[in-house]
């Protein structure tokens, strides 16, 4: 299985972030993390990196939907407008079981999967296998 270089977690729940980072470390999922607490913070950090063609872009983004300031949907709407040469795999990781959210996720070509929290080491293994 390929190890991800940089994984990005965009989520306002510190317990989820802590747990996910711990599971990622145990699964030897990635070399490093980027963590943002809302979509705006992530966008403000990632946009200049994308525009400068820097290599420090994440390979995988785990995106929560329900966050303050800028939610996951707003982040996606802005993020997909930025031309990017690198393919970044985006997974929605949320506690939302709303069928409308699930259906809406299908409208985005760059979303690889819709995962319900909590995330498990088995799901991380599946993500690593998919990135091979």
UniProtKB/TrEMBL annotation:
Domain of life: Bacteria
PTM annotation (4-aspartylphosphate): residues: 64
Record key words, sorted: Phosphoprotein
Organism of provenance: Christiangramia echinicola
PROSITE patterns to which the protein is assigned, alphabetical: RESPONSE_REGULATORY
GO biological process, one term: phosphorelay signal transduction system
Pfam families, per database record: Response_reg
Descriptive protein name: Response regulator receiver domain-containing protein
Domain Response regulatory: 6-132
Phosphoprotein found in the keyword field: yes
Stored InterPro entries: CheY-like_superfamily, Sig_transdc_resp-reg_receiver, TCS_response_regulator
